[in-house]
Amino acid sequence: MCKEECFGNQYRGCGHYVRLYSTGNKTDCGSPDCFHSSAHKHKTARTCHCSRIIYDDRRVLNLFQEPCDHCKEANYDRGRRR
């Protein structure tokens, strides 16, 4: 499937990747079954069931050894309910 380049932060504490921005650079997969590919076989069809997923071509700007903010909040809230 096609890919779109994006930059973000990797958090090793929880394993999450938090996307900051996309560059707009896209990589064409060349598959006839991919809706976003230039080789798509149903270019004029009204209903097409081809995959519309674009995968992230991830570039890591910062590598943190702690959990992301969302996971920190979830752990904090979980502790308050006890």
TrEMBL record:
Official protein name in the record: Uncharacterized protein
Species this chain originates from: Multifurca ochricompacta
